[in-house]
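User: What would this chain look like folded?
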Amino acid sequence: MRLTVLGSGSTGNAVLITAGDTRVLVDAGMSARETVRRLALVGQDVSQLDGVVITHEHGDHAGGLRVLLKSLECPVYIQAKQETPIFERTAIFSSDEPRKRAEVLKNRTEEIESSKDFRIGEIDFHPFTIPHDAADNFGSRQLIPVFCVATLMDFGHITTLITERLRAVRRS
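Assistant: Here's the prediction, encoded as structure tokens.
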């Protein structure tokens, strides 16, 4: 299993997790062009992604998703309670952006929950809620047999749950 941070910060977040033939992008906060460029720099083709997981609806985590999906055929894994904020009009988007987002995501999403495990290809995701000013921001542990990594972004403070989940990463 390999975890590659493509971008981290207020200008955009994206992490690539690979295991065997499975490639998953966690968050798509950079422009589509920049995401494609950074994937290519690490020898990955955007069209080979098996899924995109959105941890929460903020622009630095989901802002590049609409345009990126034009290059992808894979599903987007997102919580239902995050979809409404993603489709809402905000001051930074044109009034047409929510409609465009809804069109691109139509029939492309797989609903997940921050308290229920899910699997993409060879990778098991074990999400858990983390504190942040979003609909339900989550981090997760990603496991394949004999290996475990974790992704946590934008958490306000360390909670007991975060400590427990990260301790489990060390033991795995």
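The first strand starts at residue 2 and ends at 7. If you want, I can go into more detail on any region.
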